Amino acid sequence: MGKKKAKVAPNNVAPTDASVPDALTGDNNDTETQTDEALEAAQKEAEEAKTEAAKEAKEAEEAKAKVAELEAKVKAMENAKAVEPDTEEDEPVPDEPEETVTIIIPSSAEFDGKEDVFLNANGRRFQIKRDEEVEVPMVVVNTLRDAVKTEYDRDKSGRIIGSRNVSRFPFQTL
């Protein structure tokens, strides 16, 4: 066996440490540090990406839960609306005929004492002519009984000495 000769660089120049890669010379502390730093940066970036992805997934789940909650509310409102009649648009049709009463509301000396009486009883509107016999539901009679005004009693000097509630629309039942 013969001895092998070392290869010589072109122009018979031997390579110097400066031209030999660090891996071949054993001087790789700088390269290892840079590799470690790059690895740490990549790991940190990966952790941040995982954290951000987890946060976005949590927000998406919360949004889905909120949407489901709102859809349930809408469905419940639609079901409630289907059950309850709208009093402004559709008057409920009573199952039994209402009890009616014949009344007379006389004219009075007040500023609107000769005008028709307008009232609203349980969402239903009524216009009642004065000085005429009118047949009305019992709910109208109850509303007229509840319509009161306060009159004040005064002494000779004009001071208030008392008060009393009187019917706003006196009426007679026939």
Automatic annotation (TrEMBL):
Residues covered by region (Disordered): 1-64, 77-99
Compositional bias segments (type: Acidic residues): 29-39, 85-99
Compositionally biased spans, kind Basic and acidic residues: 42-64
Name recorded for this polypeptide: Uncharacterized protein
Naturally occurring in which organism (per UniProt): Pseudodesulfovibrio nedwellii
